[in-house]
């Protein structure tokens, strides 16, 4: 049996710590080995105690969660840290995500939201398992890892009409790297489907907008996908590409509730399927770091509808190589690139350079 995932929980509120501990107790092979109510307590607890995952309240006292995160990263850069945050703390949570926290978990406001907390905790525990598996081990302990399939090396027959970025765990930092590298003259609309809880994507969009030459906004009712704009899907709801409207024939963007798909809302697959029904020219899709398989079948739908093209982030630069790998395994990825090379490649493809 594999060793349990060792978790530290840091939250000033003892009730919140007890709730998280109770939710984790129902998961197999998970052990809460440390609890803390402040940054100082957390760092002292972890001085000589190895852990695989830290659940960190973004508003800890004594310089808060941001300073605790920085200190943890100095000690153990590869240690996954997930944030516990209320929506009122969204701005600070997004700052922490930009610093390298792997995910933000919205604190429940009511017992009816506990199931959502359980699913979120399961997701970050899987992230911790993946990170632990990726750590170097001795030759005697190592086992051959499955070899990922090769990209399909497709081509573009005409200039794309739209860029779609799908991302989950580790997304805010990856998005900042790619989007900030694009020029202000980038000619296509970009739609971002980031797996994130309701109440946090607005702060994410504002943060990205401050760092990017292109305008970035959370999608609002009535928005249209305009060339050179970046549109972030609202957390907790689905997004679809709607019919063209206006003199410029811009695509509308439709927000709706709907049933969760691939475990959540928004769904990358769902948005990509909607583009396959609407666009006349290819879709340029980008599968970035993240847990799970959301996105691969959506890319497949765009390829069945047109000569679309797909870039995927490589394993070395991904926090969790789930979403990109699922696209490779389905045979829909055309190029695998390091994170810092994706922006330059997007510029070339968007301008009509041959793929």
Quick synopsis:
The chain has 355 residues and is α/β, with parallel strands linked by helices. 35% of the residues lie in helices and 21% in strands. The chain starts with a strand and ends in a 5-residue tail after the last helix.
Taking the sheet with the most strands, its summary is: 7 strands, parallel
N-to-C span: 47 Å
State which percent range the strand residues make up: 15-25%
- The averaged pLDDT comes out at 89
Task: Report the count of strand segments.
Answer: 15
Rg, nearest Å: 20 Å
Helical run tally: 11
SS class: alpha/beta
Overall shape: globular
Order of helices and strands: EHEHEHEHEHEHEHEEEEEHEHEHEH
| Helix share bin | 25-40%
Strand order of the largest sheet: 8-10-7-6-13-14-15
Low-confidence stretches: 135-145
How is the secondary structure organized here?
Blueprint (H helix, E strand, L loop, with lengths): L4 E6 L3 H12 L4 E7 L2 H7 L7 E5 L6 H12 L5 E5 L4 H10 L3 E4 L7 H21 L27 E6 L3 H9 L10 E5 L6 H11 L4 E3 L5 E2 L4 E3 L5 E8 L4 E7 L11 H11 L4 E5 L8 H10 L3 E5 L9 H8 L4 E3 L1 H12 L5
Parallel strand pairs: 1-2, 1-3, 3-4, 4-5, 6-7, 6-13, 7-10, 8-10, 13-14, 14-15
Antiparallel strand pairs: 9-12, 11-12
Helix pairs in contact: 2-3, 3-4, 4-6, 4-7, 6-11, 8-9, 9-10
